[in-house]
Amino acid sequence: MTPKSLRKDTIMTGRALGYDEAGEGPVLLLVHGFPLDRTMWAEQISGLSDIRRVVAVDLRGRGKSPETGDGWTVDDYADDVAATIDSLGVDKVDLAGMSMGGYVVLAAWRRHPDKIRSVILINTKAEADSEEAKDAREKTAALVREKGTVELVNGLFPKMFAPSARDAVKDKVKTMFEDTPSETAAADALVMKDRPDSTSDLGSINVPTLVIQAEEDSIMSVDGSKGMAANISGARFATVPSAGHMAPVENPEAVNRAIREFLDGIED
What we know:
Strand content: 5-15%
Number of helices: 10
Mean pLDDT: 94
CATH class: Alpha Beta
CATH topology: Rossmann fold
CATH superfamily: Alpha/Beta hydrolase fold, catalytic domain
Largest sheet: 7 strands, mixed
Number of strands: 7
Order of helices and strands: EEHEHEHEHHHHEHEHH
Helix content: 40-55%
Radius of gyration: 17 Å
Structural class: alpha/beta
Shape: globular
Low-confidence stretches: 1-9
CATH architecture: 3-Layer(aba) Sandwich
């Protein structure tokens, strides 16, 4: 079944992204959150490369994908992912995203379902922003343009972790915050602000799906993720203990275990 919102005349304007990879076989492609980069997936690259060719991309404007610009949309990000899939020489991938990366995965499903073998959504949601949240995104974009991503470290950073998060984990994430160019962080904020509501698309997802939610995530709720999973036919749901919004970095063993068990049940 093709998603109702997928247009037959969709024009893809994406560009292949830079990435890190390890392993062989079917591709597991990982999409990072905000304001992060591919390095958040280091433990997944090393921990899952025995069962997949694991590819962690940098979305445009950072790291190995240094293109600059503005006026980007979540569809642009999804088209970049699709162009990257083509560049890898494969027809389909297991597509995973965390937080903002989950928004990109859902957009990719709307636009390029033929390229997706399975879906993994981590600490994310399908709903669009409320008007209050949209206003906050505008303020975030303006703030980082004026004062840099150090302001995100002061404001957003403390919300990203469970109380038990190790200092080494926080240092790794802080480096990602600081390495993201201010203009890119601002563009990301506006991409999230303007993304469409994906709730109505959940019922069209007809590939194996895993929804993962950290138990101590103060940004996304367990109940919200359970509701999202309930709207996707046959979706599996897993919780990650002792982790907040940065679960793939805070508790990579539990995240990898959930992904491994899910992927083991998918035919090549």
